């Protein structure tokens, strides 16, 4: 039991550490949680699904690609841009939000499973007459594993639900003020960001 818990905690630490590494290029931080983006211009033209590459004080930069993700080593053949005055609206979406939410939720749900097992153990043990007979069953590896699975399942379900809400839309309509209101949130969602890495490096 203790070895299993130790292994799970070690895995959780590894995931957090791996995701907190900061890579910098040209003063921008690589953001592995960068978003897909759909842009509509002021003439009503809808651009193909792309990846939000970076954001400047007056323009959006994006890469039209079949891929839904980007690595820090990726060198796009063409980076397109559009001035805020030509942007009517845009939508961003996290890559595989349901899968990522389920993974994180599943990992974080394991402690819930441990708590469920401990609570069930105490409840059964305090049950008159049958408590002493059933208590040994709750210490069995199969029961402990079942509690882990239950907790991870609950966490994965909640994570997947939250991941499904990772879609965001902005109505810019070519206005400078609306673009300025959105620029910080858009920067956080770009693959190369001025702020995303600062938050991770300060943790």
TrEMBL record:
Transmembrane segments: 143-166
Source species, domain of life: Bacteria
Alphabetical UniProt keywords: Membrane, Transmembrane, Transmembrane helix
Full protein name: Glycine zipper family protein
Species per Swiss-Prot/TrEMBL record: Algoriphagus taiwanensis
């Amino acid at each position: 039991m203790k070895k299993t818990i130790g292994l799970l905690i070690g895995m959780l630490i590894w995931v957090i550490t791996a995701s907190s590494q900061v890579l910098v290029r040209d003063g921008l931080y690589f953001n592995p949680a960068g978003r897909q983006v759909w842009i509509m211009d002021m003439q009503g033209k809808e651009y193909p699904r792309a990846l939000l590459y970076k954001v400047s004080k007056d323009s959006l930069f994006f890469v039209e690609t079949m891929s839904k993700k980007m690595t820090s080593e990726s060198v796009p053949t063409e980076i397109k841009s559009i001035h805020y005055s030509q942007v009517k609206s845009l939508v961003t979406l996290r890559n595989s939000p349901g899968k990522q939410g389920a993974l994180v939720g599943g990992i974080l749900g394991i402690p819930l499973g441990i708590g469920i097992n401990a609570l069930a153990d105490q409840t059964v043990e305090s049950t008159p007459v049958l408590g002493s007979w059933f208590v040994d069953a709750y210490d069995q590896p199969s029961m402990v594993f079942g509690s882990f699975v239950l907790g991870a399942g609950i966490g994965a379900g909640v994570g997947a639900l939250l991941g499904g809400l990772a879609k965001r839309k902005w109505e810019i309509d070519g206005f400078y003020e609306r673009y300025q209101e959105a620029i910080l949130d858009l920067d956080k969602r770009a693959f190369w960001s001025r702020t995303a890495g600062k938050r991770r490096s300060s943790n």
